[in-house]
Amino acid sequence: MGAHPKGDAQIKDNRIAQTTLGQWIAHFPACLGSKVKDTFHGQLPFLFKVLSVNTALSIQAHPNRDLAARLHAQFPEHYPDNNHKPEMAIALTRFQGLCGFRPVDEILGFLKAVPEFHALVGNEAAEELRCSVGDPVRTSQALKKCFTRMMNCEKKVFVDQLNMLVKRVTEEGAVGKDTSSSNGDLLLCLHSQYPGDIGCFSIYFLNHLVLDPGQAMFLGANEPHAYLYGDCIECMACSDNTVRAGLTPKYIDVNTLCDMLSYSPAPAASKLFPCVQDASDPCVSLYDPPVPDFTVMRIQVPASVKQYTLAPVDSASILLVIEGDATAASAAAHSDVTLRRGTVLFVSANESVSLLITSQTGLTMFRACCLL
């Protein structure tokens, strides 16, 4: 949902001459709001998605603006625009992902407990990491060396080690042994989806996050991550730039990924992104990341409320209905619009929308906008 040239949203109302959202915004740029229009040069600055992840999505990171411009200039077929792509995932169901480097003691623990992993990293790099503890600069350099060594292993070497590891964990599990010191369950799950993929070993470097519905993670530039399982709402800057390195059949760019990553170890809990209650509306929770491109609101109208006004904001917004039914009216609309699960509305800047809620269970919606 958005106006990226590779996936410009279709307008379903056939009374409107423009057929895509991008065309409509180009005709009526004031709909963005004056600050958004000027800051983002007449473009809608965000993309809004619903993801239903049944098999893991690649280990990846997104470039900052400088790197995005360089990659786009050099390899436009792989990096289709020159924008950065910070993104946020908000869980709709229980949602699993990998995000950011684990604390060093956890990585060292896996190097000790998983000889197949240690073999790929090598003695020298593993020892450097062990000796760097307590010195953040040295730790970051040593972590980069360890990760790069593993990612650049010869295919035959890592496939052999992976097969040995999977065989060992499977056999241990079969006799009732606890395989958690090898992260056994997650390893076997990823290996069943991507057999022989180097990305299976990334679970020893990256935090494994499990989000409950409503919890979020924010992924800034150069943050390694992968979505593993579950449904989420995702919002991001308007870009399609992704540097991938594993768990994917798509183009892999290991050298760029290893160079660009943020090698900052931190506990899994620090990767959760908190939402805050909107001071002016008890129905609204705000997910406001540290980038200007987007903010997401979760709007939960209780069953006891039958009329609700979507407050105007000084930004175009996209509204997605998750649960419930309502009729929407606004001064700008040709006629009332029926809202149900899955309905998507584009709301112009400074436009308020009156909702008459018809479902007995209330109404849950997500709204993406740009609050400068």
TrEMBL record:
PROSITE patterns: PMI_I_1 (PS00965), PMI_I_2 (PS00966)
Keyword annotations from UniProtKB, A to Z: Isomerase, Metal-binding, Zinc
Active site per database record: R244
Associated pathway: Nucleotide-sugar biosynthesis; GDP-alpha-D-mannose biosynthesis; alpha-D-mannose 1-phosphate from D-fructose 6-phosphate: step 1/2
Record bears the keyword Iron: no
UniProt-listed Gene3D superfamilies: Jelly Rolls, Phosphomannose Isomerase, domain 2
Record InterPro entries: Man6P_Isoase-1 (IPR001250), Mannose-6-P_Isomerase (IPR016305), Pmannose_isomerase-type1_CS (IPR018050), PMI_typeI_C (IPR046456), PMI_typeI_cat (IPR046457), PMI_typeI_hel (IPR046458), RmlC-like_jellyroll (IPR014710), RmlC_Cupin_sf (IPR011051)
Primary enzyme class: isomerase
PANTHER family on file: MANNOSE-6-PHOSPHATE ISOMERASE
Family recorded in the similarity comment: Belongs to the mannose-6-phosphate isomerase type 1 family.
Name this protein carries in UniProt: Mannose-6-phosphate isomerase
Annotated organism of origin: Sphaeramia orbicularis
Taxonomic placement: Eukaryota, Metazoa, Chordata, Craniata, Vertebrata
